[in-house]
Amino acid sequence: MKRVLVVCRANQCRSPFAAAALAARLERLGLAVTIDSAGTQAVTGAPATEATRLAAARLGLDLSEHRSRPADEELVRGADFILTMERDQLREVVILDPSAFPRSFTLKELVRRGGDLAPEASAEAPGRRLAFFHAGRRPVDLLGASSDDDVEDPTGNRFADHETMAREVSELMDRVVELVWGR
Description:
Order of helices and strands: EHEHHEHEHHH
Mean pLDDT: 92
Radius of gyration: 15 Å
Distance between the termini: 14 Å
Number of helices: 7
CATH class: Alpha Beta
CATH topology: Rossmann fold
């Protein structure tokens, strides 16, 4: 697995934070994986929000150089593994490239499905592990929104905040690294 794409809506909060958190973990493990982020409704060139940069800095991550970009067919097609923050973003990814469904998951969905990982899958390569996580999934299962699968967007949401999002995504990324890379 060489390229991971992390997707949210505007690519200014959740996906840049999640991409930086994942990149830091994989770098510490000495794994050479390119981590990209994008947004389904992103404008090109916007920085991460100030609240996101501050939350990231508190966890040792630097988002000062981040600039948003829209998710497009080329990015999706080039990714070996795609993580989205919400179900609707996953659906948008699959619209861009229908063949991406087996390798695309919401962050929370992957962690939830990973709890059911068959013991024999733990010895498999990352790409083969994704096949285990995908087994039995149906697109219809990802219709609508779900707190089981969606990471709340703290931008403009009075019921969510950047610090909580950062902690939640950070903990979920620990589990993703364990599930996908076995470390």
